[in-house]
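Researcher: I've got a protein sequence and the SMILES for zinc ion. Could you write out the 3D structure of the bound complex as structure tokens? I'd like something to compare against our soaking experiments later this week.
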Amino acid sequence: MRSAQGEPRPLLGHPVADPLVRARKRAGLRLPGSGPAWYNVAGGGGSVAVSRETVEHIAVLARLGLDPAEAGEMERQLGAILAYVGKLRELDTEGVEPTFHVLGRLLPSLPLRPDEPLPPLSPGAALANAPASERGCFLVPPVIPEEAEKGGGGG
Amino acid sequence: MTSEFEPVIGLEVHVELSTRTKAFCGCPATFGAPPNTQVCPVCLGLPGSLPVLNLKAVEYAIRAALALGCQVARVCKFDRKNYFYPDLPKSYQISQYDLPLATGGAVEFLTPGGRKRVGIRRLHLEEDTGKLLHEGVESGSLVDFNRCGVPLLEIVSEPELASPEDARLYLTALRSLIQFTGVSDCRMERGSLRCDANVSLRPRGSREWGALVEVKNMNSFRSVKAALEFEVSRQARVLSAGGRVARETRHWDEARGVTFPSRSKEEAHDYRYFPEPDLPPLRIEPEWVEEIRAGLPELPEARRRRLVSGLGLPEYNAWVLTSSPALARLFDETLRLYPDPREVSNWVMGDVLRVLNARRLELEESKLTAEGLAGMLRLIDRGLISGRAAKALLEALVVDGGEPARLVEELGLTQVSDPAALAGVVREVVAQNPSTVADYLSGKEKALTFLMGQVMKRTSGRANPEVAARLLRDAMAGEGRAGSGAGPDSGGEAGGR
Ligand SMILES: [Zn+2]
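Model: Sure. Here is the predicted complex with zinc ion in place.
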């Protein structure tokens, strides 16, 4: 692959001057460390703690109802996972190109498909498993129309 | 109102790409099919399905990026943007987060104060969502997933727009650029172009940033400007009263002409982006980019240069005439048939746009052709129709189309130049407006204008103005010689009704 600088580079494991940080700056994104609170888990060098607030916040985002015992368990498990992954923080990654994607090694680039139509599902098949439908549409609990305007491109 | 504060506006524009199929599956991406007939396991998010990216969508995105002067990334990747909403069957949208397809372009537009240039921060590919329908459903909302998965381009400007009018001009120039590349029809009323805005105010001259308010649900170019004008004065009012502007998302209510705070909770903005595990990074070979660059059509800027230096048109005309490829094409083709740039430009920018606006038609939807417009101009030159009849003819050419000469016959617009045919009307007008005639005879040349209007009214605008004026003068001179003076002013000016 070629790095953003133009010299040919493998996608993984070879030193370049932090292209992810450059790319994020170019794209006008927050740099790591300035994101929402829950991304910034405390600790380093192996000891990582996840707060109860973080667990509850993620539970709300994921639409999960956790009782206090479950939340405590999640706190412990997520902490353990982050501590395990946190081991990587012990490495000196100065000048190492970030792993953009775990498949980057297996597939040098994303395979593309020609713009040729394929037959869609037969009429009705799409709705066959829907709990409720009306006039060829999926019927869902009422959505406040104002919110419906958010439409494409997401919120 | 806003004099102590200056607005800082950035636009986020979504453009649907005109590919035949969706971004990650082979479903047709055509607009207007019956609900849920263009869906498959991939775009419905059924378990076990895998996305495969459409090559054409990437090519179109690169084409648009190049037209905007962006730098196309050598490597970009896709990420999942997670949120729950019924129009999103997977509960995430495949988008691009930290490594977008392109960055760093610019869009230029013409303001009364001269050219302005606004930076493009980033351009990325993502998939569209489904559509929610609410009308006539009591039990809930209806979802149609035909649009779900259609490739979308998101184009984010730098926050460099200084006024709502600048935002409108930027959007017009951006739409024109994208339309010229042919990658999208950019029809706002169909949703193939959508626009959100970030608006904040700061004390004039300050470098500080005010609280950012996101404005959504602006469905036309007019509503973009209206919504931003409302939002700018609202924030100015809050700040002038010593208040603080809340950082929030607001929706534009077209009917009431106001923005109001969205009911969605703040946490909805926490999208927990992470790399899309089903799609490895996309490498874009520079050779491919250069190939696409070489195939770019003539863009508005090159066309404007041609119109200004080649044809001697004013710069403003050149901008209007390149505001859409359809308008540019109409101008070019009409000019080929009727080689008078000024005349063609005046008609296209004046009456053609006026009729289209009045009828809320896009040029592509109208029946107007270059042949029709050129034919009309020739009929005027030959004295076969008056300027007033030409306007009526243009309406017909836009709405129904057809051959100008035949339309003139059908609509009875032929100019009447035969003095014998006009003599009767002229006699009537003179007889019924004795006081105006007296005014004319006493030297008030303006009185003739009124009498001409009467002749035009009675001939449905078909009288040849020169012939009619000559006949009127002759007839009144005859009155004057008759020496009878003005009799009792029976009808007066109103007699002409
Ligand atoms: Zn599909």
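Model: Confidence is low (pLDDT under 50) at residues 1-19, 30-47, 147-155 of chain A. The longest strand of chain A covers residues 137-140.
Researcher: Great, I'll pass this along to the crystallography team.
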